Amino acid sequence: MASYKPPVLLDIKPNPPEGELHLKPCPFCGKEDPVYWQYETDVGPRWKVFCLGEECGGCIDTGYAQQRHHVTDKWNRRAKE
Ligand SMILES: [Zn+2]
Q: I need a surface site. Which of 40, 47, 50, 72 has the fewest CB within 10 A?
């Protein structure tokens, strides 16, 4: 029987100040500079974008993002302009 294991944190990368991987402020709380967060899964490491705002926990996690840019677009499309 498989038992639930919490995701293992592998790496955190800060928001690049510019370029393709730059992340807009959080669409939920407006805080700037969310981080890229890499975690382990049974089928390999995956990336999500995670807001560090207190009591926010905003995140975009597709479950299949093997590269950071796979979640960049999704986060930025949701972000407030
Ligand atoms: Zn937030």
A: 40
Residue 39 CA, ligand 1 centroid: distance in Å: 19
Is the pLDDT confidence value at 36 over 90?
A: yes
Of the candidates 56, 41, 42, 50, the one whose C-alpha atom is nearest the C-alpha of residue 12 is 50
d(CA 76, CA 22): 9
- pTM higher than 0.70: yes
Domain ranges of the chain: 16-78
The helix/strand/coil state of 74 is helix
Q: How far is the CA of 32 from the centre of ligand 1 (A)?
A: 8
Q: What is the pLDDT of residues 62-81, one digit of tens each?
A: 999 999 999 999 999 987 55
